[in-house]
Amino acid sequence: MSYLSGAILIILAGVLWSTQGLFIRLIPDTGSWAILFWRSAGMLPVLALWIGVASRGSILSEIRAVGWAGVLGGLGLVMAFSGAIYAFQATSVANAVLLFAASPFFAAILGRVLLGEAVSPLTWFAIILAALGILVMVGGGLAGGALDGNIAALASALGFAVFTVTLRWSKLANMLPAVALGGLFSMIAGAIALAILGKAVLIPLPEITISALMGAVTLTGGMLLYTLGSRVVPAAQATLLSLVEVLLAPFWVWVLLDETVSRGTLIGGAVLLAAVLLNAYGGRVQRVQGARPVSVSRLHPEDI
Description:
mainly alpha, disordered C terminus
Protein backbone atom coordinates (compact mmCIF):
# COMPACT_ATOMS: atom_id res chain seq x y z
CA MET A 1 0.00 0.00 0.00
CA SER A 2 1.29 3.47 -0.87
CA TYR A 3 1.53 6.41 1.53
CA LEU A 4 -1.23 8.21 -0.39
CA SER A 5 -3.59 5.24 -0.09
CA GLY A 6 -2.89 4.99 3.63
CA ALA A 7 -3.49 8.72 4.12
CA ILE A 8 -6.83 8.48 2.28
CA LEU A 9 -7.91 5.57 4.49
CA ILE A 10 -7.08 7.56 7.64
CA ILE A 11 -9.00 10.59 6.38
CA LEU A 12 -11.97 8.35 5.59
CA ALA A 13 -11.74 6.95 9.13
CA GLY A 14 -11.93 10.48 10.49
CA VAL A 15 -14.95 11.20 8.29
CA LEU A 16 -16.76 8.13 9.64
CA TRP A 17 -15.93 8.98 13.26
CA SER A 18 -17.13 12.54 12.73
CA THR A 19 -20.72 11.34 12.17
CA GLN A 20 -21.07 9.79 15.65
CA GLY A 21 -22.33 12.98 17.27
CA LEU A 22 -24.85 13.55 14.48
CA PHE A 23 -26.31 10.05 14.78
CA ILE A 24 -26.62 10.34 18.56
CA ARG A 25 -28.34 13.70 18.09
CA LEU A 26 -30.84 11.96 15.77
CA ILE A 27 -32.09 9.79 18.65
CA PRO A 28 -32.31 12.39 21.45
CA ASP A 29 -34.92 10.48 23.48
CA THR A 30 -32.79 7.34 23.75
CA GLY A 31 -30.78 7.07 26.96
CA SER A 32 -27.02 6.83 26.79
CA TRP A 33 -26.96 3.34 28.34
CA ALA A 34 -29.31 1.95 25.71
CA ILE A 35 -27.22 3.51 22.95
CA LEU A 36 -24.09 2.05 24.54
CA PHE A 37 -25.67 -1.42 24.65
CA TRP A 38 -26.86 -1.49 21.05
CA ARG A 39 -23.84 0.30 19.60
CA SER A 40 -21.61 -2.28 21.27
CA ALA A 41 -23.85 -5.03 19.91
CA GLY A 42 -23.17 -3.65 16.44
CA MET A 43 -19.42 -3.50 17.06
CA LEU A 44 -18.87 -7.08 18.17
CA PRO A 45 -19.81 -9.03 15.00
CA VAL A 46 -17.59 -6.83 12.81
CA LEU A 47 -14.65 -7.11 15.20
CA ALA A 48 -15.15 -10.87 15.54
CA LEU A 49 -15.17 -11.27 11.76
CA TRP A 50 -12.03 -9.16 11.37
CA ILE A 51 -10.14 -10.96 14.15
CA GLY A 52 -11.31 -14.34 12.83
CA VAL A 53 -10.09 -13.64 9.29
CA ALA A 54 -6.77 -12.22 10.50
CA SER A 55 -6.15 -15.16 12.88
CA ARG A 56 -7.58 -17.84 10.59
CA GLY A 57 -10.39 -18.65 12.96
CA SER A 58 -8.52 -18.43 16.25
CA ILE A 59 -10.76 -15.76 17.77
CA LEU A 60 -10.78 -17.09 21.33
CA SER A 61 -7.02 -17.64 21.27
CA GLU A 62 -6.48 -14.06 20.16
CA ILE A 63 -8.72 -12.75 22.94
CA ARG A 64 -7.05 -14.91 25.60
CA ALA A 65 -3.65 -13.68 24.41
CA VAL A 66 -4.35 -10.11 25.54
CA GLY A 67 -4.48 -11.28 29.18
CA TRP A 68 -5.19 -8.96 32.08
CA ALA A 69 -3.90 -5.97 30.14
CA GLY A 70 -6.65 -6.49 27.60
CA VAL A 71 -9.22 -6.79 30.39
CA LEU A 72 -8.05 -3.54 32.01
CA GLY A 73 -7.94 -1.84 28.61
CA GLY A 74 -11.44 -3.09 27.85
CA LEU A 75 -12.70 -1.62 31.13
CA GLY A 76 -11.08 1.67 30.15
CA LEU A 77 -13.04 1.55 26.92
CA VAL A 78 -16.30 1.21 28.86
CA MET A 79 -15.58 4.61 30.41
CA ALA A 80 -14.46 5.96 27.04
CA PHE A 81 -17.52 4.76 25.12
CA SER A 82 -20.16 5.62 27.74
CA GLY A 83 -18.60 9.01 28.47
CA ALA A 84 -18.53 9.88 24.78
CA ILE A 85 -22.17 9.03 24.23
CA TYR A 86 -23.31 11.03 27.23
CA ALA A 87 -21.09 13.95 26.23
CA PHE A 88 -22.70 14.10 22.80
CA GLN A 89 -26.10 14.26 24.49
CA ALA A 90 -25.22 16.76 27.25
CA THR A 91 -22.89 19.25 25.58
CA SER A 92 -22.28 20.54 22.06
CA VAL A 93 -20.75 18.15 19.54
CA ALA A 94 -17.90 20.63 19.02
CA ASN A 95 -17.13 20.69 22.75
CA ALA A 96 -17.23 16.91 22.96
CA VAL A 97 -14.91 16.09 20.06
CA LEU A 98 -12.43 18.78 21.03
CA LEU A 99 -12.24 17.52 24.60
CA PHE A 100 -11.78 13.96 23.32
CA ALA A 101 -8.58 15.27 21.73
CA ALA A 102 -7.11 15.60 25.24
CA SER A 103 -6.66 11.82 25.39
CA PRO A 104 -3.00 11.84 24.21
CA PHE A 105 -2.09 14.18 27.04
CA PHE A 106 -3.80 12.04 29.67
CA ALA A 107 -1.95 9.04 28.22
CA ALA A 108 1.38 10.86 28.40
CA ILE A 109 0.82 11.68 32.08
CA LEU A 110 -0.38 8.17 32.95
CA GLY A 111 2.55 6.68 31.04
CA ARG A 112 4.95 8.84 33.03
CA VAL A 113 3.37 8.01 36.41
CA LEU A 114 2.61 4.33 35.89
CA LEU A 115 5.22 3.17 33.37
CA GLY A 116 8.05 5.63 34.00
CA GLU A 117 8.03 6.78 30.38
CA ALA A 118 9.98 9.91 29.63
CA VAL A 119 7.99 12.95 28.54
CA SER A 120 9.79 15.51 26.41
CA PRO A 121 9.78 19.21 27.36
CA LEU A 122 7.81 19.93 24.18
CA THR A 123 5.11 17.47 25.21
CA TRP A 124 4.93 18.96 28.73
CA PHE A 125 4.44 22.38 27.16
CA ALA A 126 1.71 20.94 24.92
CA ILE A 127 0.02 19.41 27.98
CA ILE A 128 0.01 22.77 29.78
CA LEU A 129 -1.34 24.46 26.65
CA ALA A 130 -4.04 21.81 26.32
CA ALA A 131 -5.01 22.27 29.98
CA LEU A 132 -5.53 25.98 29.38
CA GLY A 133 -7.77 25.26 26.41
CA ILE A 134 -9.73 22.70 28.43
CA LEU A 135 -10.23 25.18 31.28
CA VAL A 136 -11.70 27.71 28.86
CA MET A 137 -14.04 25.12 27.35
CA VAL A 138 -15.15 23.59 30.66
CA GLY A 139 -15.64 27.08 32.11
CA GLY A 140 -17.89 27.88 29.19
CA GLY A 141 -19.84 24.71 29.92
CA LEU A 142 -20.29 25.82 33.53
CA ALA A 143 -21.76 29.09 32.32
CA GLY A 144 -23.93 27.40 29.70
CA GLY A 145 -25.26 24.55 31.83
CA ALA A 146 -23.27 21.83 30.04
CA LEU A 147 -20.65 21.16 32.71
CA ASP A 148 -21.65 17.52 33.14
CA GLY A 149 -21.29 16.94 29.40
CA ASN A 150 -17.82 18.48 29.38
CA ILE A 151 -16.79 16.34 32.34
CA ALA A 152 -18.14 13.24 30.57
CA ALA A 153 -16.07 14.14 27.49
CA LEU A 154 -12.94 14.42 29.62
CA ALA A 155 -13.80 11.11 31.32
CA SER A 156 -14.06 9.56 27.87
CA ALA A 157 -10.64 10.94 26.93
CA LEU A 158 -9.24 9.52 30.19
CA GLY A 159 -10.79 6.14 29.41
CA PHE A 160 -9.08 6.02 26.02
CA ALA A 161 -5.83 7.00 27.75
CA VAL A 162 -6.21 4.10 30.21
CA PHE A 163 -6.79 1.76 27.27
CA THR A 164 -3.68 3.06 25.53
CA VAL A 165 -1.41 2.83 28.57
CA THR A 166 -2.48 -0.72 29.41
CA LEU A 167 -1.59 -1.82 25.88
CA ARG A 168 1.79 -0.11 26.12
CA TRP A 169 2.37 -1.70 29.53
CA SER A 170 1.84 -5.20 28.12
CA LYS A 171 3.40 -4.40 24.72
CA LEU A 172 0.43 -5.91 22.90
CA ALA A 173 0.96 -6.05 19.14
CA ASN A 174 -2.74 -6.31 18.31
CA MET A 175 -5.30 -4.10 20.04
CA LEU A 176 -8.44 -5.40 18.31
CA PRO A 177 -9.12 -8.28 20.76
CA ALA A 178 -8.91 -5.76 23.61
CA VAL A 179 -11.37 -3.53 21.76
CA ALA A 180 -13.68 -6.53 21.39
CA LEU A 181 -13.49 -7.04 25.17
CA GLY A 182 -14.31 -3.36 25.57
CA GLY A 183 -17.39 -3.83 23.40
CA LEU A 184 -18.46 -6.88 25.40
CA PHE A 185 -17.93 -5.13 28.73
CA SER A 186 -19.84 -2.12 27.41
CA MET A 187 -22.83 -4.31 26.52
CA ILE A 188 -22.77 -5.80 30.02
CA ALA A 189 -22.40 -2.36 31.65
CA GLY A 190 -25.25 -0.99 29.56
CA ALA A 191 -27.54 -3.90 30.47
CA ILE A 192 -26.72 -3.61 34.19
CA ALA A 193 -27.24 0.16 34.21
CA LEU A 194 -30.58 -0.18 32.42
CA ALA A 195 -31.70 -2.84 34.92
CA ILE A 196 -30.71 -0.65 37.88
CA LEU A 197 -32.54 2.33 36.38
CA GLY A 198 -35.59 0.20 35.62
CA LYS A 199 -35.42 0.86 31.89
CA ALA A 200 -35.91 -1.63 29.08
CA VAL A 201 -33.07 -2.88 26.92
CA LEU A 202 -35.46 -3.10 23.97
CA ILE A 203 -35.99 0.30 22.39
CA PRO A 204 -37.79 1.17 19.11
CA LEU A 205 -36.34 -0.63 16.08
CA PRO A 206 -35.21 2.57 14.26
CA GLU A 207 -33.16 3.55 17.33
CA ILE A 208 -31.67 0.07 17.61
CA THR A 209 -30.75 0.25 13.93
CA ILE A 210 -29.06 3.65 14.23
CA SER A 211 -27.14 2.59 17.35
CA ALA A 212 -26.01 -0.73 15.87
CA LEU A 213 -24.95 0.92 12.60
CA MET A 214 -22.88 3.40 14.60
CA GLY A 215 -21.04 0.50 16.20
CA ALA A 216 -20.61 -1.58 13.05
CA VAL A 217 -19.89 1.14 10.49
CA THR A 218 -18.91 4.53 11.86
CA LEU A 219 -16.97 3.39 14.95
CA THR A 220 -15.54 -0.03 14.07
CA GLY A 221 -15.36 0.65 10.34
CA GLY A 222 -13.42 3.83 10.99
CA MET A 223 -11.11 2.02 13.37
CA LEU A 224 -10.32 -0.68 10.82
CA LEU A 225 -9.65 1.92 8.10
CA TYR A 226 -7.32 3.75 10.51
CA THR A 227 -5.58 0.47 11.38
CA LEU A 228 -4.92 -0.28 7.71
CA GLY A 229 -3.82 3.25 6.83
CA SER A 230 -1.49 3.65 9.80
CA ARG A 231 0.60 0.71 8.59
CA VAL A 232 2.18 3.02 6.03
CA VAL A 233 1.59 6.47 7.57
CA PRO A 234 3.79 7.55 10.53
CA ALA A 235 1.85 7.92 13.77
CA ALA A 236 2.31 11.68 14.18
CA GLN A 237 1.06 12.32 10.64
CA ALA A 238 -1.83 9.88 11.14
CA THR A 239 -2.87 11.86 14.21
CA LEU A 240 -2.98 15.05 12.15
CA LEU A 241 -4.92 13.46 9.31
CA SER A 242 -7.51 12.01 11.69
CA LEU A 243 -8.21 15.52 13.03
CA VAL A 244 -10.66 15.76 10.14
CA GLU A 245 -13.03 14.20 12.71
CA VAL A 246 -12.73 17.26 14.95
CA LEU A 247 -13.32 19.60 12.02
CA LEU A 248 -16.27 17.75 10.48
CA ALA A 249 -18.24 16.68 13.57
CA PRO A 250 -19.45 20.23 14.37
CA PHE A 251 -20.01 20.85 10.66
CA TRP A 252 -22.55 18.00 10.27
CA VAL A 253 -24.69 19.14 13.21
CA TRP A 254 -24.45 22.77 12.10
CA VAL A 255 -25.61 22.02 8.55
CA LEU A 256 -28.26 19.42 9.41
CA LEU A 257 -29.39 20.40 12.92
CA ASP A 258 -28.45 24.10 13.09
CA GLU A 259 -26.24 23.58 16.17
CA THR A 260 -23.87 26.50 16.63
CA VAL A 261 -20.50 26.77 18.37
CA SER A 262 -20.00 29.00 21.41
CA ARG A 263 -17.24 31.56 21.72
CA GLY A 264 -15.67 29.61 24.60
CA THR A 265 -15.55 26.48 22.44
CA LEU A 266 -13.90 28.36 19.59
CA ILE A 267 -11.23 29.93 21.82
CA GLY A 268 -10.57 26.92 24.04
CA GLY A 269 -10.79 24.54 21.11
CA ALA A 270 -8.26 26.55 19.10
CA VAL A 271 -5.81 26.42 22.03
CA LEU A 272 -6.39 22.68 22.47
CA LEU A 273 -5.93 21.99 18.77
CA ALA A 274 -2.71 24.00 18.81
CA ALA A 275 -1.51 21.73 21.62
CA VAL A 276 -2.44 18.63 19.61
CA LEU A 277 -0.57 19.92 16.56
CA LEU A 278 2.45 20.76 18.70
CA ASN A 279 2.37 17.31 20.25
CA ALA A 280 2.14 15.66 16.84
CA TYR A 281 5.08 17.74 15.63
CA GLY A 282 7.05 16.60 18.69
CA GLY A 283 6.20 13.00 17.89
CA ARG A 284 7.45 13.46 14.33
CA VAL A 285 10.73 14.94 15.56
CA GLN A 286 11.22 12.09 18.04
CA ARG A 287 10.57 9.52 15.35
CA VAL A 288 13.10 11.13 13.05
CA GLN A 289 15.62 11.09 15.91
CA GLY A 290 14.91 7.45 16.66
CA ALA A 291 13.07 7.93 19.96
CA ARG A 292 9.62 6.62 20.81
CA PRO A 293 7.18 9.51 21.32
CA VAL A 294 4.76 9.39 24.20
CA SER A 295 1.92 10.99 22.25
CA VAL A 296 -0.75 8.48 21.33
CA SER A 297 -3.52 8.04 18.86
CA ARG A 298 -7.02 7.74 20.23
CA LEU A 299 -7.83 4.47 18.51
CA HIS A 300 -4.57 2.98 17.30
CA PRO A 301 -1.96 3.41 20.03
CA GLU A 302 0.29 0.48 19.22
CA ASP A 303 1.76 2.24 16.19
CA ILE A 304 3.40 4.87 18.42
